[in-house]
Amino acid sequence: MRFQTKLMVFISLLVLVVTGLLGLSFRYMITSALYEEIGKRALTVANTLAVDAQVRDALEQTDTTQLRLRIKEAVKPVQASSGADFITIADRHLIRQWHVNPERIGTPMLDPMNDKVLQGQSFITESTGSLGRSLRAKTAVYDGEGKAIGLISVGFLMTDVEQNIRTYTYAWLWFMVGALMIGILGSLLIARRVRRELHGLEPVEIGRLYQEKQAILESIGEGIIAVNSSGQVTLANPQAVRLLGLSPETTIDGCELRHLPGAAGKLAEVLVADFIVNSEDMKPGQEQLVFNEEIEVQQRVVVVSRVPIKDRSGQRMGTVASLRDKTELLRMTRQLTEVKDYAEMLRSQTHEYTNRLYLISGLIQLECYNEAVDFITQESEQYRMHRTNASTSLPDSIIASLLIGKKKQALDKGIVLHSTVSGVFSTLSPALEWPLLAAMAGNLLDNAMEAVAMLSIPEGQVWFRLEETAEAITVEVADNGSGISEDIRGKLFVKGASTKTEAGHGYGLALVHEYAERMGGSIQVHERTGGGTLFKIRIPLNTSVMSDEAKGGYTHE
């Protein structure tokens, strides 16, 4: 059964039960009120006759004929005007002297309460008499001396009372039917409104979506946080709590983001500050989306993307943001760089060794066997020595493989790559990361070879130096290329800044700068004597005595 149908049935049943209970209460109150009113009316008629002088004089008559005649004259108009179904008058001996049924005149009244009436008590009772069930009132008639000389009983048959009750009940039933119809119509409107607010989803679907949302928030690696227009957190997954520098068991739902400790205040500026300031003047659709904005959290860089949450009318209700640890992005970038370098190295080696195979094949075809053997021996020895030197002199296999690949790449471009490695590389800093250092060296070597290739000179050269001292590790990359142009010199390490017009450039030096800052190092850029550029990276090995110059950033000369 659809939710809309269930809601209609539930509301209709609720209206039916409520109106039914009200109907029963109404019937009870009407019945009690009618009983009380008719009983009081009967007692009033009885008291009226009891004080009537004509009735009193008649009951003092000894002549029965005269007694009944005078009572008849007194009772007839009273009974007609009061609407009583019967009026019974008995003498002091409880013998009926007047009754609506003439056959009952002269017979005794056998009700045991009659004796109490003669003793001065008045009663309103419901009992069954000769005419059926009735509601009657009884009172005594007194003479001038205050002695009871008779009894008057005035009654209304219950059939008339019940008829009145049925009349009111029927009216109430029509009211119940009307209320039920209004309830059904109202439930239909409410069900449609609720369904529209729930975007046509059934409760089972909403429950499934909620469970799926919780599973998604738990499974994704990014932090997700949502705030309302007041800056209160309405949703935050565990990754968001972790990226904010809070303990995993901390619950921040319902808290104001600006009042949370640590980096949450910086995040609040990104998520809600502009909304609170400009919400009165801001029109729907004017909000600026925020993508990949960087904030510093617990000595790490978090990338924030923000989009507004809007209702059906387009009014902004809050903001949802995704948080990504830039460390993960840098790790992926490093992996891509390594893959690229490896692919370049394989391509270069394939090209080079294909040429060598052609040469060996030609020598064999010319039957120059001795020359072929000498060439193979010479190449094997050079490769063995080059690989042995690179593997033993370099501190990390990543940099060793990088230099081997870059040498092959430079050879293909007609560029001579000189490399110098000095130091034992035994005193290492916890902040030093060789993969990052290799990525920095690879970017600088690529830029250097591109700068040399732009001049198209036959004597293009690139120099690479890796040196370890007691204080720091230094990486230098120099070239005799075209140098740095004036228009790019001021924004050399700005992300996206490049002299190339193609998309996708301008990120290499920005990454080098970020990696250097991460390891607490510095970058210096010099114009090389004789033309070209010299990049010098210095990574301190003792961060506790790091100089101000080495705390990130770069200098340009």
Topology of helices and strands:
Layout (H helix, E strand, L loop, with lengths): L2 H48 L2 H7 L4 H19 L3 E6 L4 E3 L15 H5 L4 E7 L2 E11 L5 E10 H40 L5 H17 L3 E6 L4 E4 L1 H6 L20 H15 L11 E8 L2 E11 L5 E10 H40 L3 H25 L3 H16 L3 E7 L11 H22 L5 E8 L3 E8 L6 H4 L18 H11 L3 E6 L5 E8 L13 E3 L1
Parallel strand pairs: 11-12, 14-16
Antiparallel strand pairs: 1-2, 1-5, 3-4, 4-5, 6-7, 6-10, 8-9, 9-10, 12-13, 13-15, 14-15
Helix pairs in contact: 1-3, 1-5, 2-3, 9-10, 9-11, 9-12, 10-11, 11-12, 12-14
Could you give a quick summary of the protein structure above?
By secondary structure, this protein is α+β, with helices and mostly antiparallel strands. Helix content is 49%, strand content 21%.
Note down, in words, how this protein is organized.
- The chain is of the alpha+beta class and 557 residues long.
- 49% of the residues lie in helices and 21% in strands.
- It contains 14 helices and 16 strands.
- The protein has helices at 3-50, 53-59, 64-82, 114-118, 158-197, 203-219, 238-243, 264-278, 326-365, 369-393, 397-412, 434-455, 486-489, 508-518, and strands at residues 86-91, 96-98, 123-129, 132-142, 148-157, 223-228, 233-236, 290-297, 300-310, 316-325, 416-422, 461-468, 472-479, 522-527, 533-540, 554-556.
- Strands 11-12-13-15-14-16 form a 6-stranded mixed sheet, with helices on one face. It has a 5-stranded antiparallel sheet with strand order 2-1-5-4-3. The chain has a 5-stranded antiparallel sheet with strand order 7-6-10-9-8.
- Helix 9 packs antiparallel against helix 10 (369-393).
- The longest helix is centred in the first third of the chain and has 48 residues, at 3-50.
- The protein is rod-shaped and about 175 Å long.
